[in-house]
Amino acid sequence: MLPLDSARHIVTAVVVTHDGARWLPETLEALRSQVRPVQRVIGVDTGSRDRSGAILAEYLNSESILTLPRNTGYGEAIQAALDHPRSRSGLAGTEGTVEWIWLIHDDCTPEPDALQQLLAAADDNPRAAVLGPKLRDWFDRRLLVEVGVTIDGAGRRETGLESSEFDHGQHDGTRQVLAVSSAGMLIRRDVWEELGGFDRSLRLFRDDIDFCWRVGGAGHRVLIVTEAVAYHAEAAARRRRRIHATGDHPRRVDRRNALYVLLANLPTGAMVAALLRNSFASALRVLTYLVAKQPANALDEAAAITSVFFVMPFRLLAARIRRRKGRRRTYSAIRPFMARGVALRQFTEAVANLLSGDPTPLDGAGRHQAVTVAPRAEDDDDPLRDDSGLLRRAITNPAVLLITGLTVVSLVAGRSLLLGGRLAGGALPPVWGGASDLWAMYLASWHDVGVGSDAVAPPYLAVLALLSTLAFGKPWLAVLGILLGCVPLAGFTAYRLARRVLRYRPAQLWMAASYALLPVATGAISQGRVGTALVHALFPVLGLLITRVLTLNPRRSRRAAWALGLALALLMAFVPLVWALALVTGVLIAVAFGHLGRRLHVSLAISLVTPLVLLLPWTLELFLHPSLWLLEAGINRSEIVNPTLSAEALLLLSPGGPGTPPLWVTGGFVAAALCALLLRRNRVLVAVGWCVALFGILIAILVSRLPLSLSQTADATAWPGVALAFASTAMLLSAATAAQSFGNLWRLGGIRRLFAATVTLLALTTPVSAAGLWMWHGVEGPLTGDAPPSLPPFLESVSADGTQPRTLVIAPRKDGTVAYSVLHGRPPRLGEPQIPPDPDVDARLGEVVAALVAGRGGDEAAVLANFGIRYLVVPAPEVGDPIDRTLVDTVDALPGLKRLQLTEQFALWRLLEETGRLRILPPGEDAEPVVLRVGPLDTSVEIPPGPEGRRLLLAEPAGHGWQATLDGVELTGSATEWGTQEFALPTQGGRLELTHAGLARQVWLTVQVVLLVVVVALALPGAKTEEDLREQAAQPALRPRRPRRRATAGTRRAGRGRRARRRGRQ
Amino acid sequence: MKLLVENRFALLFLVVVALAALFGAARLSAAALPAPGGDAEPVLAPVESITRVCPTPQGEDRRTQVAGHAPGDGEGTAEDVLEVAPNLADAAPEQPAAAAGQAWLHEPQETDSGTVVRAEGGFAAGAEVSQTTTGDGTVTEVRCAEPSSSTWFAAPGGAELKQLRLHLANIDETTATVNVDLYAPDGPTYSLETRGVMVEGRTELELPLLPLVEHAQAVVVHVRTNAGRVAAALYAERSADGADWVPATTAPATSHVVPGVPGGKGNRRLVVAAVSDEPTTVQVRLLTPDGEVETEALAEVEVAPAASTRVSLEGPLESRDATVVVTADHPVVVGAEVRRSDDDTAYTAATAPLTAGPDARTVAPPAPQDAKNALLLGAPEKAATVSLTPVSPDGGRGEPQTVTVEAGTTLVPELDPADGTVAWEVELTDGGPVHAARVLTVDGTVSVLPLAPAPARVPLPRVVDSLTTVVP
């Protein structure tokens, strides 16, 4: 027992109740049973419509009860109570007595010794004017609710606690804080009166912080007394009861009051900064709410911030003047107690929740704000999980561990890619330049690539450009992110999918890890296949979206269908085969879930047609050249594809080529999946998984065997990676489904236990050995982080003046074919491999190259000049001895070429004849063309006068919308014998304007942007509304039409969502 | 269905069967696929133009003719053009033939720069051009060569050799740089005179080699260009009459066939050079009309590294016509020398065979009127059927004559020329390969022209427009 002179302190408790019948009796009982009794109690009933008034009357003297209108604010109610004569009655103040006010919410139950502890603390700290107890949760009395509160620069109320933190005394210790909650707040009455009580403008929310701030400003102290404990239900803040003190929506009031408190109390400079900061943040938030399809929230946010500018200025001014009067301390006394870094913490918490798959709590640690979602029904009696603490959750969460592990594996394996200046190799052209280059290439109607082309840029270029823009404008960062990030990302998405369709945690983890480390992934990385890497990472997302389409209520299901269409478009842009697989899956779903009717059919149609429309001009290409369906983004090269991939490899899900692990790696899990067929539980699902897997393998066999019919000079062999990823997903799901019963098998013991153990071991070999081998070998494929330069540095410096001389690069290959390409004084860019050259002109060039390599003829140099080619490069030349003639000798012997250099990296020749993209050819047989200096695209150049009959030669394919005007007069164009463009030139000179018409492309791009915006708007999921939840609950569990038909639906589609399944169990 | 649901192993069985089916499908389809790249049909392009360079005629008071013939069934798009002109920048070309398919003879202008034959279209497809010089009871014939970057000669040697001259003709405008490598019996011979020889554009350069090889028994000459291309010809002179052009031989290989070693008296010698840095063992087989002659002396001929040697053939041959087959364990270059008397020498060299396909045909170019034509056909591996068609100057064809060369023999068919026949079209119709040579006889002196295939269509490497050129 503390030495206490109770006569020194006179305490007036003020109980304000508003529809609080549920808690009030307990509260009043607690007040009555205080060890240190209160001298006076005033009850205020602000127009309760339940039994609150009656309950008050049961406990209190009727004279001590005030009844106020329903819309009375908390501050007003207290003031009214203090103005009541009973609050002054009886105990005439003797010398040295201190009058206290104890604010008791109707939902706040103090411990019996709470007041005693508070007063003891007040005795110890004579300067303390406001004291507050430690608040724990009313329902679960182990949980901490508040130990003092503070506010941050954005007006957020901050308690400094984790969400659902247990009280182990970790925050104990009586100390000074910025503010304490008004629930259980003990205030020196003279200070209250001096400061005028709670600000009348703040009818609800932040009134306590504002008051305590002013108390601190007046030179007093605000203490949190952790020895004193009260239990608080936070009924108003958690919306367990409706608020009538203000007519506006609580969220708007909360935001407005937060701004008010900040702007009223901060010193001028900080206030201006806070105003700017909050205006900006509010604009962002409005945008976020709009994107999340929450217009009401957006309106509240906008209203709150605009009210600061249009409604509050005078109130704020008045409030600031009032506060200045009472101020004794500068801001420096307050600042140490302000909260910092709240936004960052909330962000990390959201990310952690996303990773662990928990729903993001909208009311995080800093509750007591207006919440946007009603508390979950089970909140009151949910058995609490022991998962408090962000770090602890992160460490113990298997998903976080899995993804961290996969990231480490990727980084270790990809160590060779991280260092080095240039990422290139395999299917990946050198990644250089900036995002703007990629955008320019996508938007262009004419590509300065090869001999020139007006083909449509592949749509994946736009995706890469977008990603590069997000990666600070660095394409290499985006590409490296896709390549190295695909394994952890695939693990994450596969885990999300597994959580949706599987119940057994180890099976979920095993499936995610196995999927992430499939041979397809390591192969795609080694071979530089950005497309397959991305598809591998996002494939499970398609599965997730399909389950959403099938399980959600009509409105949200339709949104998911649009999202599915968008995701499909994204993946199809890289690997068109995904669409074909999706089409087959869609047909299966339509058959299996046909009883859902038109709604499902429309959704499926939306998902399948949206990609075709979004990628339109390119989609036509796909249908015109069906071989393109089997190819993917990047350079299609035969040498990284095994054209006669063995049957064993296909059945063991290895797509072949560099970077794929040995075949036995996947053997374990295929064997385990086969063993899964022996179990009787979940038979149908396992069978379905196997059916889909077999179908995927069949597709993979077709892909790797079908001959591609492309143009003569094209070079391509299809890689069955994506089809095998599809098959593996199905196989993994069927194996993992079966694994759910392993727990039972283990318990049954005997032979069953042995079986379960063996299969588990088999299954585990796959992810473990895949990760181990991958880390040991690293990414050792054609892909390298330090690719040698594509062109001799000499050429790049020559090209720096903007002329970009065309360079023919010839490389003989091992199989006897000869590869060639025309570069423009710079290395090729991402996306260039998918821009097909003009077929006629390219075929002519091909003939010239063949003749040149074969060493026949002798006039090749003159022909190359017609294509505007100035240099010839042989990379990594083989230098023969006198007996062994090589390509270098052959080219050396060509008349009209002069060798400039021969190193280990390059042999470089220059044409003796001056040539360029634009030349004037005077009439006559032996006339020497005059080369004009022009840039790579549209150009304007001065033409001198010349003789009759001269021609203007443009080394670009003819008939693709080239227009030339000389002083405004259009020149007539025609094609040369090489298929390039020429114009008849008059005798007089003038200004030549050369343009390429690309209106159709620009119009289509505009349409495409509009379409994309519309689809994105339709696809945005929006926040879950209460209505959605109700509908969701009302919807019956989804089942395929007939039990047997489920067999055709595929496991991924048959997932019914957790909620539905939970009900199914009950 | 009931079984499927109830039996524990039914499902596994079904899946295993399906997997086996897929395995079989994958196996079979892989076997059915053509091997990548290997069996791809080569791209055949019609020969649309040829350029040949005939060296400056040697010997005085003799009559020189440039003669050529093309079967004239060019499939290309080029017009038929035939132009013969001296290798001079401003020379006016002459057109010795009116229509494609005609065999033509042309007396070149007397210059010191050689003669350039340009043919396009029907004149180019399957054409062969040679230059003959007759007079004073001698005859020499040389194949007019394509300008190229690498030419090999296997030349004779010996103390009696008076002259060994290399004629290097550059028909381009730019200067060509030439290196000449010599392989003598003692090993390679180096000399500053043969390094970086500049051949100006539109000129012919004579390079005397004899001082460099002294009296070596045999010498193999490699003409290679560092820049530009040249048409090379080698003239070996023992006496004014005993001189002839040494035909270019095929590039180093481990197997060669030298056709057209004419019978009769005199020396016949084989020149072999090993070009690698390994001691080389050469096996020589002789194919005569009576079949293969086996001789122990020729079974194992040792050649020092990067050196040449000379092997005598007259003993085993016993005056018979022959085809010489040479195989070695390291690449060699071979040629043969025929010296019937001091005033009659001839040289022959290894040549590519006539094989089925585009290389089945060749042409024996029109011979001078007073010369007697003989064809020597050797079939070292399998029996071959060869069709011989006589061609008259107006393009008329005689009745094709079909002969069969037995395996391992040399055949000298009895030619049955129609009136005015000047040229012969030689085509392998079955079997093979066949190595052919034409022997011209004037007043008892001979000159040999190995007949390489003269295809009308040539295979081109498959080209692929791909960025793989610059991406590792």
The helix-and-strand class of chain B reads mainly beta
Pairing-aware structural class of the strands and helices of chain A?
alpha+beta
- Main sheet characteristics of chain A: 10 strands, mixed
Question: Overall 3D geometry of chain B?
Answer: globular
Q: Low-confidence parts of chain B lasting 5 or more residues at pLDDT below 50?
A: none
- Gyration radius of chain A, in Å: 38 Å
Give the strand tally of chain A. Answer: 28
* Strand-residue proportion of chain B: over 45%
Report the end-to-end length of chain B measured between terminal Cα atoms: 55 Å
- Arithmetic mean of pLDDT of chain B: 85
Query: Helical residue percent of chain B?
Result: under 10%
Mean pLDDT of chain A: 83
Tell me the number of helical segments of chain A per DSSP (H or I, 4 or more residues long).
39
C-alpha Rg of chain B (nearest Å): 26 Å
Helix content of chain A: 40-55%
Distance between the termini of chain A: 53 Å
Low-confidence stretches of chain A: 360-388, 1042-1066
Strand content of chain A: 5-15%
Model description:
The complex is a heterodimer of chains A (1066) and B (472). Chain A is of the alpha+beta class and 1066 residues long. In chain A, strands 1, 2, 3, 4, 5, 6, 7, 10, 11 and 12 form a 10-stranded mixed sheet that branches. By secondary structure, chain B is mostly beta strands. In chain B, the strands form 8 sheets. In chain B, strands 19, 20, 21, 22, 23, 24, 25 and 26 form an 8-stranded antiparallel sheet that branches. The chains are: A alpha+beta (1066), B mainly beta (472). At the A-B interface, strand 14, helix 25, helix 27, strand 15 and strand 16 of A face helix 2, strand 15 and strand 36 of B.
Summarize the structure.
The complex is a heterodimer of chains A (1066) and B (472). Chain A has 1066 residues and is of the alpha+beta class.
